[in-house]
Structures are given as C-alpha cells and as structure tokens.
Specification:
This protein is of the alpha/beta class. It has helices at about 25, 40-50, 50-55, 75-85, 95-105, 110, 120-130, 130-145, 160-170, 200-205, 210-220, 280-285, 300, 315-320, 335-365; strands at about 5-10, 60-65, 85-90, 115-120, 145-155, 180, 185, 190, 235-240, 245, 250-255. It contains 15 helices and eleven strands. Strand 2 (about 60-65), helix 4 and strand 3 form a beta-alpha-beta unit. The longest helix is centred in the last third of the chain and has 33 residues, at about 335-365.
Length: about 375
C-alpha cells in the first residue's frame, strides 16, 4: 500500500487522568476538564477524510491536548477511518483498560493498520497505582496483532529513576523504551525543558540508545530553511472544527467539513516555516516532508526488538512506515517553488503586520 499523506489530527480533549509535570498542557495551564466534542458523527468524519478525497491512503496520527482515548466517540472515529483504509496512530498514556478492551475487538484487518504510541509516565503510574494496567494494555495490543511503541519523556524528575525504569521495562517488555525530548512550549525558541545544558541532557539519557531521541536531538535546534511540503504532502487538522492548517504554523487552508465533495485545498509551506525548529521532525522529516534531507525512516523511529526477537512494528505497519512521501507525490517545479515561496513571504509579512497592530492596540488600551 502506498503512503499518500501524513495527517496529524488534533483531538479536542484537554483533560487527563494523569498530571505529568513535563506535559505542555500542564505547563500552559490548559487543562479544563474538556472532553472531545464532535459536531460531526464518525461516518461524516470518515467521508470528510475519504481515501478518494485525499488522493490515496494516508497515515493519520490522533493526539489530544490531554488523554486521547478519554472521549467515548474517539473509538468509533478510529474504527471508521481504519475501515476507510487508512493507517492510524494513537497517542495514549495506556491506562484506560476499557478502551483497549474495545479496540482489540476490531477485526484483524483493521488491527494490522493500527499503531498505538504508549507514553510511559513512570512517576504518575506509580502515584496512581496504574503501572500493572499500563503494561497489561500493551500486552493486549501485542496479542491482538497491532503495532505499538513505548516512549518516555526524558524529564529531569525521572533522572533519579533511570535504573528503575530500565529494570521494570526489561521485566515487562523485554527491552527498554524509546525516549522523546521534553520541550518547553512557553519559550520563544521552544527549548528543552531541563535544567541541564543540551549536551549534558543528551549525555544523561544516552544509555537508552533510542533512535527516536538521537534523531530528535540532532535536529532540535536546527532552523529549517529548505523547501518543505508540509501543507501539501502533510497536514494538521482539528477534527472538531475541521480546520486544515499547513502545519503547527502557517496558514489555514480549508475546512474538511465544507464542500465535502471537492478535494481539500493544499499548499506547501515552502521555505517560510515560522517555527524556530521542527520539534516533531521525527515524523514530518523522516516521512519526507523535506525530500532533500537524508533521514532514517519513520519505522526506525518507532520500532524496537525485545529479548525474544519480537518487533514492536508488525510487518504491514512497518512496510507502510518505511515509505517516504516523495515516493508517491510529485515534487514542484522550480517555478512552482518560487511562486509558493513568494506566497509564503507575503503571508509571513501579513502576519507580522497583524502582530504589530495588536501590539499597538494593546499599548493604547493600557495607556489611553
């Protein structure tokens, strides 16, 4: 099966049953006990993201502001999109056993195109007494035939517990988890969330030998200036509102719930990414949003092999994740790139002007 697009889907749940100090929602005090509310039913969402409309089979990532699986409707949406033919990834803290009991009852043909990202929140699992449930749910997913990964956010408060984390992981999983970088979204440069220098931070966590962590660290403070196809080959969609954006930055392109019979408008962000660095480049870049970059595959970011020789990625999912977007999409001509870069420059200038106007208005309000 050919990978046409990568679509990062935001689920509008902004609450969680855990309270991790390094969570960006916790940092910004965004928890408001809000569960996902979809104005459109699962079948409407499926139609809005049909294989035909998107031009092919896509890799969809489901992630909420809080815990993705808290809202009951999410399970039905996941199933509909799997039945449509897409490959689906779900980010979860892995503690909601009832949800996994529902998921593992999906038909095998759907489960082989499902990938669960288990976030291992060690201290919170200890505090809530949910450690056993967490690992039991991972085993449910494995037995059902789905792919999964397990990752820990490399946070300072976990440093004294590194050896305990390794021990329990080897005992329960037969291999240690991947790592992801703790980031501080409150900072202008989206820096690491750590009291350590970046070099000491990388050294402290190096024993995990995580390809995910190593690649993220290699690009974390690198400003991307190449021509990026985010906005065309990849999209960022709010499943509640239907808003389609180029990426976490850039312009709003469309709404998936409007003119549902027509293709979704796409437009590459080009060389005008406004982010200080591609902090989720382990997905966007390894999947090929910037085709000139030589990177590992996304499958490499996610797989591990346990002491019994079992892969976390099942063959069907691994083959899909090993693809690059440029293999199945047409690159722009030089003229198209120049045109798109001009549009990007005009948009960036307009956004800068709006920011200046807002600043002037706020100053006037404070000092009439």
């Amino acid at each position: 099966m050919r990978l046409k697009k990568f679509i990062d889907c935001y689920i509008p749940t902004e609450t969680c049953n855990l309270r991790c100090q390094y969570c960006y929602i916790t940092q910004q005090r965004k928890f408001d006990s809000k569960l996902a509310q979809f104005e459109h039913d699962p079948k409407e969402i499926r139609n809005a993201l049909s294989v035909k409309r998107l031009g092919g089979v896509c890799l969809l990532n489901f992630c909420a502001g809080g815990e993705t699986l808290l809202g009951e409707e999410v399970i039905d949406v996941i199933k509909e999109l799997l039945e449509e033919g897409h490959y689906l990834m779900v980010v979860t803290n892995g503690t909601l056993s009832a949800r996994f009991d529902q998921i593992v009852k999906f038909p095998p043909a759907l489960l082989e195109r499902l990938f669960i990202k288990f976030s291992f929140h060690y201290l919170e699992l200890l505090r809530t007494g949910l450690m056993d449930s967490f690992f039991e749910n991972i085993e449910k997913v494995r037995r059902a035939g789905s792919s999964f990964t397990v990752e820990i956010t490399a946070a300072d408060e976990l440093i004294p517990h590194i050896e305990d984390i390794k021990r329990i992981s080897m005992d329960k999983l037969g291999v240690i988890p991947h790592l992801t970088i703790a980031r501080d979204d409150r900072t202008r440069m989206i820096e690491i969330l750590s009291d350590l220098s970046f070099e000491d931070y990388k050294k402290t966590w190096s024993d995990f030998e995580s390809d995910l962590f190593d690649f993220k660290a290699s690009i974390f403070y690198e400003k991307r200036k190449e021509f990026c196809y985010a906005g065309d080959w990849s999209l960022y969609i709010n499943l509640a509102t239907g808003s389609v954006r180029q990426c976490y930055c850039g312009k709003q392109l469309d709404n998936i719930y409007k003119d549902i019979e027509n293709p979704i408008h796409t437009e590459a962000i080009g060389g005008h990414c406004s982010l200080p660095h591609c902090y989720n480049g382990h997905a966007f870049l390894t999947l090929g949003s910037i085709p000139e970059l030589v990177t590992p595959t996304y499958a490499q970011m996610r797989d591990r092999v346990d002491k019994r020789g079992r892969h976390w990625l099942q063959p069907t999912m691994r083959a899909f994740m090993e693809q690059k977007l440029q293999e199945n999409n047409e690159e722009y001509s030089q003229l198209q790139k120049e045109k798109q870069n001009l549009k990007g420059a005009l948009f960036a200038a307009g956004e800068k002007f709006k920011k200046i106007l807002r600043s002037i208005k706020n100053t006037i309000r404070r000092d009439p």
